[in-house]
Amino acid sequence: MASAKSMKTLRIISRHLLIILITALAGGLLGATLVRLAPGFGIQESDLNTQLSAETRRAMHKEDAGEQNVLSYYGHYLGSLLHGDLGYSRSMDRPVSELFRDRLPDTVESVVIGVAGGWLLGLALAIPASWKRAPVYSASATLISGVFLCIPSAVLALIFLVVGSPGKLAIALVIFPKVFRFSRNLLVKTYTMPHVLTARARGLSSARIFGWHILPNIAAPMLALAGVTVSIAFAAAIPVEVVCDSPGLGQLAWKAALSRDVPLLVNLTLVIAIVTVAANSFSELLSPAATRDVL
Amino acid sequence: MKASGHRVIGPSGEVSGPTLLALLIVIPLALALGGCTHRSADNSGELRVTIKTDPKTLNPLMAEEDASDRIRYLTGGVLIRVNRKQQENQGELAENWNVDEGGRRITFNLRAGVKFSDGSDFSADDVVATVKAALDPSLHSPKGDPLRAGGKADVRALDRNRVVITFEHPIAGIERLFDEIAISPARMAGKADSSVVLGAFSVAEQRAGEYVLLKRNPYYWKKDSAGHQLPYLNAIRMYVLSNRDTELIRFRQGDIHLIDSLPPDLYEQLHSDDPGAARDLGPSIESEQLWFNEVAKAPIPAYKKAWFRSRNFRRAISSAINRADLARVAFRGHATPSVGLLSPANKFWFDKNLRPIAYDTNAALELLKQDGFSKIGDTLKDRGGNPVSFSLITNAGNKQRERMGSLIQQDLQQIGITVNFVPLDFPSIAERIMKTYDYDACMLGLTNVDLDPNGQVNVWMSSADLHQWNPQQKTPETEWEAQIDKYLRAQAATLNRPERKADFDKVQEIVADEDPMLYLVDKNALVAVSPKVKNADPVVLTPQTYWNAEYLSLEK
Amino acid sequence: MSRARWIAVGLLIALFVLVLFAGAFAPAPYAKQFRNDTDHRPSEQFPLGTDELGRDRLSRLLYGMRISLLLAPAAALISTALAALIGGAGAYMGGAWDRATGMFIDLFLSLPWLFLLLTLRALLPLDIPAVTSVVVTFALLGILGWAASARIVAASVRSIRTSEFLLQARAAGCKPSRLLLRHVLPNVKPILLAQFWISVPLFILTEANLGMLGLGVTEPLPSWGNLLRELENYTALRHSPWLWVPLLSLVMVVSLFQFALGAEERA
User: Which chains lie within 8 Å of chain B at 3 or more CB pairs, if any?
Assistant: First the structure.
């Protein structure tokens, strides 16, 4: 019995790993294709440098030759990837692996702070709003989340900068309104379900109702939301890092996009795809239905 | 059933909704607001400035973009320096020099007793190796490009302190080109990394995305008038900061000492709070231009090509644009209306005979009438009945250009022209103006770093690929472009400065007459200087605030 | 209807009338440049002051709100509908369909859509009419903005699909269409509503960012998003508090919608 369960667990996990791999590879290819087809591919700022001769400018473009054919470039890239070579960034003039090594910790820190802070704040507002059902509290919480939903993330980052605080905290304020809205709506809906009303009528404590009757019903969508907020945090990191000049992957992504740096963008797409799929797969595995199957 | 939910923190330990709300918002925010700041440790003797991006290279011969070039300027010892204040050549590693054979040969007498930052001796061999590397076609050194225009070169050391370079063809204004060639040890020529240098500072540390740290060169050859060895500073920390707002915030916090090329909006902010720190140096050598697409194979309607190729049309547009308003509104008064292709900040080469272009909508309509245009109601139409309307592209994110686009849109509406203003990202613009030619008009600012007109040959020669309105012509398509080619060649072929000036004045006059590029405004050089910096003497040429870095010091 | 809801509905109607007939209420044409009165403080002539080109801010806010109020909810509706359709359908069918839909959603979330938008801009003519540009922009936002909530919808449908009440309904002979409409949809409605409310201000803000790519509202047309972008300016935070009015008005509108239509929040 235990052995059959283990096999099933292994199959489920292997399937998720395969999905991560396929999605990431497809993402990398499609990302490279989008960049290749976009206007401005192959153009560098040095092309408008009046000091440079035509020969020097042509020589600077020789490095682009390998990126012209997307399929052959991607095949070559995957081959190098197997040897741990992520390619060379033309715009930053450094190996991509070096850039990632230097910048990944900063973004990971931003994303972790953003997601954790956003969830803390979002749930802190949403749970009492659904629990207590006080109109004034509910209206206030809605208003507060509405304010932060409407402020551009770059402005939030600038406010933190002006008061001398880390700009990356702005990511938490970008995420929490979304967490609040989704979780509040889910909680309110679940609180009106017949079995919950019955439990309340029977005199069960609020904590027991929340733990035994509310949480299991909202676990699946909330876990999915958790996975999605990781993507949102990565996306929010871009304007925040650009405004704060934080040397993270978000700032790198923006610079790479402006200079159409294919090696950098392909790797960034791969990283984002892996993180997105992994986060969503992880939350799926944690959902009650999956937990029953796995455990 | 409704719950009241108004219980305050009471004996049961329950917390009311509003109270909980308040605590859960205020506490994290208070913690956040008390969080760490960007303030650096106060390192006396360490000047702090910014660069917009990580330097692409620390090899001075390969420096091409602004960040690498500033590091090259601060670390590189050069034979001849263009004095940024007087805009004249002055000897640095070369005590003196001589140009003869009609500009084909230049001989340098080197300063004796100079050492590199690692203590090794400097000699003519280092100059020979460096110049040869710059001239090496396989290296594609951007600094060597202007020298390679002289054809095949013979570089040799006559003795320990003398170098002679003989070119196949003469290069007018050759001396100034050596301002860009930083001399490296012979063993590192072509592969240098600015760690062993002859300049005032050397690269000590680089943290990608954060800063580059330059340390004082203990063997620097220069001394002040009292005989003290320069530089006064211990170090220069160049923070990598692309966001101008963040830069100003950190300047106000005392984290940064000097800012070059401050945008007008930020200048005004700083000036209102701290007038002493904000300085307007007057016109720089940078300007903003607008041109029309005159490329024959451009995928635009034939009637539009006819408009853009008409001198009267271009001059009419020029007359209908209110340059005074562009300077006053878009640049907050920190720009002056352009009169020609050079700014008056280029003291020697600027043609003082050029007259400002008057804003005159009646004159504009008169010129258009001569070409068969007529204004019917609020719309200007050409002789074929086509309403005059064109798209104007510029790079998005540049506030001043976006404002200028809106102002020009309104100005031209006065004479019945509809302008569709479209800011695009820079690579999309570059593709349109250089590859597909799928645009009507473009507005950009071509940055001049070189005072000498030879630096603009790649724009003004009709065969050049940066001859923006109609590049890479096999033979000049118009008489006036043929004239410009002729005068450019003439000024490049003589060493006589007054003769060169006269030839280039002719180029300026032709451009002012034909308006292939409408010069809009000359931007002022705006800088920020912290009161802690001593001996600061900002100028319009880059690097504006630390061109004399070896003389700068910090208040203790 | 509660009193609060009546007030919210009343204020919304008043706001819609105000922006629909902006021409009658605006102190000046939105494009007119009073070049001698740039960055003017609020005054009788300019109730919210003027912008950097001397254009009346109140006029620009009214016209900007008109465009965004009409198109942002439409775009939000598109993205919500797509989230429901794609996320819900895959999860409802289950098995390989569910996995394939999940992969598609994750792929969609990971791709750099910026380049698709750049390509689209390159394909469109430069002199595209302003109205077309705006409509295309918001349509794109709707088409590209569904993926995040599709994941949450899918998770919700997945858990409902295996719930006892649905199994009972199916056992009782309920048709699939009735199952979807009477049992599944009401249970995902809170998620879809949350998605809608989040999307409206998000699309208004994103439209302004698309201006960097040549899409979005073109000069001299104002947009709410562009007015909000003015806050990305250190001066605005310190010296010109009236620049916060577009933000306050957006918060007010979003909140009014919530109060007017948020019936499911009351038990």
Answer: A, C
